[in-house]
Specification:
The protein is an all-beta fold. 2% of the residues lie in helices and 22% in strands. The termini are far apart.
Length: 223
């Protein structure tokens, strides 16, 4: 049984997934405010379309560990990745209690959606969708796979951030160095170079020499 919590308003510490031999989440940095000094604003994360393959049936197992499915012994195909980041407000402050959702295709390019007709077998050990409620310092964390390309799209992960009382921010993160980035129409539809660059994420080897897992970081700034 997986012990990764979906959300817990009374205890928002990052859930332990040490059985995956992941590193502890990095300690969040501190911002010192000088009296009378202006608070620097952060550029908001560019919105992207939700796409046609948001799951049409949310899996029963919908925690932040996407590489194992409740009730199955196998592990997902693909390059396992520890994806972390923070949800921030326009002043760079952490947003606590934001619901972060991610969804993506499996290593065969298949989504959890009946209209996905690529005629490839779907990996039964890949959850395909997960959610996590941010901690007091705005952090979120997922265990997933490095996204893969499929016809017409560069590798990407869909991300939605929902805060009560505000419309959701929906965006996509992309893989730094993927050749498909050069022609992906959605990525290149972001006209501002700096905003487009902030959607592109490095997937690097883990700092832990005992594992072949990757790590990636994607911070989201709300408007």
């Amino acid at each position: 049984m997986k012990h990764v919590r979906e959300s817990n308003p009374e205890n928002r510490s990052i859930p332990s997934i040490s059985r995956r031999r992941l590193l502890q989440a990095a300690a969040s940095g501190l911002t010192l405010l000088v009296p009378g000094a202006a608070i620097a604003t952060e550029a908001p994360t560019a919105a992207q379309p939700r796409g046609p393959f948001y799951p049409d049936r949310i899996p029963l197992d919908k925690d932040n560990d996407l590489v194992r499915v409740e009730g199955r012994d196998g592990i997902a195909e693909g390059k396992i990745t520890d994806l972390q980041g923070r949800v921030l407000d326009p002043n760079g402050g952490p947003v606590e209690g934001a619901l972060v959702e991610i969804w993506q295709c499996d290593a065969n390019g298949c989504y959890i959606h009946r209209l996905d007709d690529r005629r490839m077998p779907r990996d039964p050990n890949f959850q395909g969708y997960g959610r996590f409620e941010t901690t007091a310092d705005g952090q979120y964390r997922f265990l997933t796979i490095k996204p893969v390309p499929y016809p017409g799209r560069a590798p990407h992960i869909h991300v939605a951030v929902r805060v009560p009382g505000s419309p959701p921010l929906v965006t996509q993160l992309y893989v730094r160095g993927a050749p498909e980035n050069q022609w992906d129409w959605l990525l290149n539809g972001v006209s501002d170079d700096a905003a487009r660059e902030r959607l592109i994420v490095g997937f690097e080897p883990s700092d832990d020499p005992r594992t072949e897992q990757l790590r990636a970081r994607f911070d989201v700034v709300l408007t």
